[in-house]
Design goal:
Pfam families: ABC_tran, oligo_HPY
Organism: Streptacidiphilus cavernicola
Mean pLDDT: 87
Distance between the termini: 57 Å
Keywords: ATP-binding, Nucleotide-binding, Transport
Order of helices and strands: HEEEHEEHEHHHEHEHEEHHEE
GO molecular function: ATP binding
Protein name: ABC transporter ATP-binding protein
Strand order of the largest sheet: 6-7-8-3-9-10-12-11
Strand content: 15-25%
């Protein structure tokens, strides 16, 4: 048995990583050629049917994701982050439904696929680690048995034990715990086991909805370093939803700031942190403590997010915005392209770069 990697040092098991890379290479060779982005979300709209009418949880969201890219998504609770992930993976269930848009994954539109077609894509090419996933493990079945069920469901019948041990080593958990039940593992180990399960087929895209939310700060850092190292070794792309600004500031390449079911700002993570253009982005950063520079008081954002079943006519942030103008209450801003950033704010409408 090879030694476990040190998460803090970013080490991984070269022996375990090699079969994953080989599987990804073989799958890429067999798949139809696709020269565009790995993921291309276009005008995705998700609505919830409620007693008060339709609640617009995701409103015409669009972005692209390249292979090997780490995309962070941040925003307050109720802004549509998790619903967006469910919409991308087509895991929505009533009363939620996709009402418009497309999700092109490797050139194929996931929206409108049958359950059977989606089952062929999930796990093998696209994996999802949802919020509190460490509590989603079957409590009466060993970790190894759960891995075995996933592998057999995708007709992986050879070397199941070997592959299970490989992915456990990848995430820094001793393979001996394949014989353990979930309650015998710590919270961090359960979360790592779920991530290992998501990597069983070395997918091209891993979607993560706050995978570190139930962990302490030390465990969060260790897990994030491990995830980033695995991404470098295996080459998969990540969409990562979190409330923790410090996590995305250190690990993501690009950042989406969501508000009221829409993209408020989208750009390179460092650019958004250094020069936030949307007042909401500035508000989030002002509420986030920094260990650098002079001490400054933390500021909250007054008010509450909008009711998605009764959205305002103009800008959805206007009622809480310290820079709101009279036009903001009546005019809904578009997502303007300003230099390398897209921002949904009338303050920047005149700066938009046109093709």
């Amino acid at each position: 048995m090879s030694p476990r990697p040190d998460p803090a040092a970013g080490g991984g098991s070269a022996r375990a990583a090699a079969p994953g890379r080989a599987a990804a290479t073989a799958r890429a060779a067999a798949a139809p050629a696709h020269d565009g982005p790995l993921l291309d979300v276009r005008g995705l709209t998700v609505e919830y049917a409620t007693a008060r009418g339709s609640a617009l949880a995701v409103d015409r969201v669009g972005f692209t994701l390249d292979r090997g890219e780490f995309l962070g998504i941040v925003g307050e609770s109720g802004c549509g982050k998790s619903t967006l992930l469910f919409g991308i993976a087509q895991l929505l269930s009533p009363p939620a439904s996709t009402t418009a848009g497309s999700v092109l994954f490797k050139g194929r539109d996931l929206v409108g696929m049958t359950d059977r077609q989606l089952a062929d894509v999930r796990w093998s090419e696209l994996s999802v680690v949802m919020q509190s996933a460490m509590n989603a493990l079957n409590p009466v079945t060993t970790i190894g048995a759960q891995f075995r069920d996933v592998l057999r469901a995708h007709s992986f019948d050879t070397d199941i034990g070997t592959r299970s041990r490989e992915v456990m080593e990848l995430v820094g958990v001793d393979p001996v715990h394949l014989d353990s039940y979930p309650h015998q593992l710590s919270g961090g180990m359960r979360q790592r086991a779920m991530i290992a399960m998501a990597l069983l087929f070395t997918p091209d895209l891993v979607i993560m909805d706050e995978p570190t939310s139930a962990l302490d700060v030390v465990a969060q850092r260790s897990l994030m370093v491990q995830i980033k190292q695995l991404q470098r070794e295996l080459g998969f792309a990540i969409i990562f939803v979190t409330h923790d600004m410090s996590l995305v500031s250190h690990f993501s390449d690009r950042l989406i700031v969501m508000y009221g079911g829409q993209i408020a700002e989208l750009g390179a993570t460092r650019t958004v942190f250094d020069t936030p253009r949307h007042p909401y982005s500035k508000g989030l950063l002002d509420a986030f403590p920094s260990i650098h520079g002079p001490r400054v008081p933390l500021l909250g954002i007054p008010g509450s997010p909008p009711d998605l079943a009764d959205l305002p006519t103009g800008c959805r942030f206007a009622a809480r915005c310290p820079q709101a103008m009279p036009s903001c209450a009546a005019t809904a801003p578009e997502l303007y392209q300003v230099e390398q950033v897209r921002v949904r704010c009338l303050l920047h409408a005149h700066e938009e770069v046109t093709a």
